Amino acid sequence: MSFFDKIFGGKESTPERKSFWKNIESEEDLAQAIESSYHHTIAIFKHSTRCFISKTVLKNFEREIDNLDHKLDLYYLDLLEHRAISNKISRDLEIRHESPQLIIIEDGKVINSASHEDISISQIV
Fold first, then answer.
1. Are the beta carbons of 75 and 43 closer than 8 angstroms?
2. Torsion angle of alpha carbons 71, 64, 84, 95, nearest 10°?
3. How many other CB atoms are there within 10 angstroms of residue 32's CB atom?
4. 66-81, pLDDT tens digit by residue?
5. Alpha helices for 1-125 (secondary structure H)
6. Cα–Cα distance between 105 and 122 in angstroms, integer?
7. Are 104 and 111 in contact (CB under 8 A)?
8. Is residue 100 reached through a cis peptide bond, with omega within 30 degrees of 0 on the bond before it?
């Protein structure tokens, strides 16, 4: 990997995601996540895998989660692979699309959201 690739994230293979993420890869996955929100608060992280800012925000957020004392249900959505699902989230939950974006859901409704540098574990706890 070249010096510039290390800095700007080019040609880098997709880094392995932390084990606490539950992937949303279908409308059924999204429906299950929303259903879970009726039992406890959930969070969906919408991530653009080609965006340096999104990668940085994701890494910082994962560091915060690693230091958290209690377990949360965290869902991960790759925007480039599953844009139709991202659009469905925007429509169904009546929230403007942003990337990166953290959406907090309780009882099937958005209770909080953040994007870019505002994404933090404090949005959830």
1. yes
2. 90
3. 13
4. 877 666 799 999 999 9
5. 3-8, 27-36, 52-66, 83-93
6. 14
7. yes
8. yes
Task: Return the residue matching tokens 């404090």.
Answer: 122
Average the pLDDT over each of 2-6, 55-59, 82-86, 118-122 and give the range with the smallest value: 2-6
Distance CA 32, CA 30 (A): 5
Fold classification of 17-123 (topology level): Glutaredoxin (3.40.30)
* 72 exposure class (CB count in 10 Å sphere: 0-12, 13-18, 19+): middle
Residue-averaged pLDDT of the chain: 87
Distance CA 82, CA 107 (A): 24
Q: What is the DSSP letter of 16?
A: P
